[in-house]
Design a protein that fits this description.
Blueprint (H helix, E strand, L loop, with lengths): L8 E4 L3 H13 L11 E5 L7 H11 L4 E6 L4 H9 L4 E4 L4 H12 L7 H12 L14 H11 L4 H8 L3 H15 L4 H12 L1
Parallel strand pairs: 1-2, 2-3, 3-4
Helix pairs in contact: 6-8, 6-9, 7-8
């Protein structure tokens, strides 16, 4: 990547020392750094970890056009899945080598997904695994949740489901979140498969 092609990088990193170090490194490599018109954002995974999805969704609204790369504490699928479902384009370990950070920035800037190979393999296996074999009734879904589940089976977006059910989009998101918790699954993909198997 030539100096003319360097994307503007925003930093959403709480730790002051870490942020200063990454900013100094990127500046030395010729990257313009700043939040305004950032094309790529380097973000630190929030603590507590259970807030990652909400934090990344807030970040997406703050940087709607930027590609987000998230530093995570461990390269595990349990950390990766909520990041990717919230719109992150890449994952890096907290202690990634500088050369790896540069490769990741370049990859996501070009629209590619960035993650270590073994982590991507786990994610792909997660998509192809059999869905849970329980009936929806066993999860104690509410009537409203079952209506959303049926709409998920038809692969509708949250906005389309909200329109269909005449509720707000945030209500749809709430119901999906509750169903994910009740079914103990990480993505709406599993809920869709559960509904598609005639168990809604």
């Amino acid at each position: 990547m030539s100096l003319l092609e360097r994307p503007r990088v925003g930093l959403a990193i709480e730790d002051r020392w870490r942020k200063q170090g990454i900013e100094a490194f990127l500046t030395a490599e010729g990257f313009p750094v700043g939040d305004r018109n950032a094309e790529v954002v380097l973000a630190e995974a929030p603590r507590p970890w259970r807030d990652v999805r909400e934090a990344l969704l807030r970040l997406r609204s703050r940087f709607p056009r930027a590609k987000i790369l998230v530093f995570i504490p461990e390269l595990r699928y349990e950390y990766a899945d909520p990041c990717f479902t919230a719109g992150a384009m890449g994952l890096l370990h907290f202690n990634s080598e500088p050369a790896l950070i540069l490769q990741a920035i370049d990859a996501v800037r070009r629209g590619n997904i960035w993650a270590p190979r073994d982590l991507m393999a786990k994610a792909i296996r997660g998509l192809t695994e059999s869905p849970p074999t329980f009936a929806a009734a066993e999860f104690n879904f509410t009537r409203a949740e079952r209506r959303v589940l049926r709409a998920l089976r038809d692969e509708l977006t949250n906005k389309e489901i909200a329109s269909l059910l005449q509720v707000s989009e945030s209500t749809v998101k709430y119901h999906i979140s509750r169903m994910l918790q009740k079914a103990h699954v990480a993505s709406r993909h599993y809920l869709r498969r559960l509904a598609s198997n005639g168990k809604s």
